[in-house]
Design brief:
The chain has 556 residues and is α+β, with helices and mostly antiparallel strands. The chain is built from 15 helices and 15 strands. It has 4 domains: 135 residues, no CATH class; 73 residues, no CATH class; 221 residues, no CATH class; 51 residues, no CATH class. Helix 5 crosses helix 6.
Amino acid sequence: MKRALATETTRKLGGNAPLVQMKLCKPEPAPLLPIGSAGGAQEQEPDSKAAPKATESTEKLAAVTPAATGKKKPPGKITSQGKATTVTKVRLNLRIVGGSAVACNLGVGSINKLVAAGIAAKRNHYTALQKALAVNKTAGLSNQQAVEAIRGVPGYEKVNAKMLRQWREAGPQKKCGRRAQTGFEADVLGELIYTSISNCNTSNEVAVIANVAYSYAVVQQAARNVQKWTVYQDDDKVQKLQFTAMWVKGFLERSTLHKRRVTTTEKAMPAVVSVQDTMAGIQEEILAGGYKEDEVCSADETGIMYGMQPKEQFVTEGERAVAPDSDEKARFTEMMYGTVGEELGSIMAAEYIIIKCSKTKNMQDLTSTRVLKNLHAQPGFTASEGWEFKIWSRELKIPKRGQKPEDAESRPYRRPYLINKAGVVITVQHKAWMDTTGCCMWVDLSIGPHFARKRGKALLIWDSCGPHKTAAVLAVLAEWGIKEKKLPVNMTGKLQIMDLLGNAPKKAGIRRRRVQGIFDYFQQWKVQRLKALYEGNPLPDFKPPKPTLEQGILNS
């Protein structure tokens, strides 16, 4: 049962008939056929010294020299030394890379021209080298004679007189076909992408402001619009364009546009000068404050979708890529932060995780929720494994909705949390978001004590997220001797170290573990399916279980 194939290869014949198992056997490669005549004469294997040598992608054809005689004679033998009687047809052998062999029949006159061509079998698209070989080895033949000779080589059956004539006239190194209308295509590109040139550090930089090239249909519509312009009404070449899928494919290649998966929502970017001023201000603060490398902390929140499905799948031609059922809403928020220095040895530091809990009447006090207590009882989060259950509390001035910050009253806030010896903190929020209370809690439990053990000072660099700008968070930071600087708006994906070096690899690792889990489930399901098939029981469906919250946190 362990050696069973992944596909169902067994079936019952009925009654007590034995099971029949079908196997797919890999065929043995065909032997290399010898050179011989096509008229039924005895074939003789060529001498090993004169045998054609295989190259990386092709096998040279053996050259044959016909006898100089004016009368036709019965077909005779062809030896490896080239001494042969006159024949009307000969059988040539072409070794294909991989070991199998094919043969073709060519007229003797054609063989003299098409020698040692190095033409590979099975070619639908011909490279410049293959075109050059076809043209050079058929030199001296008429176009029709050359086509008949080339068609005898496997993979070149579809070569016609027009193709060969283009190869000869245009030259093998030149691409055949209609020339691209560069001016017209530049105008089409302008209908799809809007760019701007700005001066930065005495050099011009081109930035894409807007891009609407989302599909072939959009590109075709842009091309039809430009085709109607007055400047192209008298251009016969432009008017003849049909804008087929092949034209769009070529247009995208010539414009160096590549299909990419949309992974983010477009945001308005600040001016280059504004970004430079902000980053210069951060650098000045680091120098003026005398901060060491391990006293400059970068931090960024990110949503961890631990139930996400695989992105890609290898499938056969015509088959759709599918993935098992997943829970796209299964997530938690993680605040990733770190410094650079000898103590840490890397950019990463401890983590601060926020999971979802039920909504309570008193949102200032979440200690009545059970989700953390339940998690504390699960393997991987127990007291014996180094996890402690604690309560955080602090008086904070957080304005209510619609209330001005200066009118906020001081109220007590309490939240439960789990913490382990490595400093990883897990807490709760009714939407699993980082809010003002969560930010204050993070400062009190994570970065505040960390820098207090050093020189009691630090510089925090993060984005302009709403809670980061509240008076309550800034006050808690000041208590711990931590100053903060914000990155330019909407530039986190380009300037935030934790987003560039931490978030992406972490999410990729979670997806890899998810795929590995599906693979492990498949191995068990396969055996169960074959067993059920053997016993005549209902066949189990392929339904990998969705990852749990515990698995999501442990895999992050």
